[in-house]
Amino acid sequence: MFNRNIGSKERGARVVGGALMILCGLFGLGASAAGWVVACVGAVGVVTGLVQYCPACALAGRKSI
To answer: In the chain, where are the structural domains located?
Structure first.
């Protein structure tokens, strides 16, 4: 359906970084409004890493590394 535009190294970085953002957002910021925003941005990172497709990268014309 979509062409993959995220390489394997970036995939790992997005999944790990997104998971850390979720943890920091929910536990580090005490589940405040800012914490939920950070956690949601982290969830987007995890999802894009798992499916190996980033719509923003596709709009910029970026190809898989």
So the answer is: 8-59
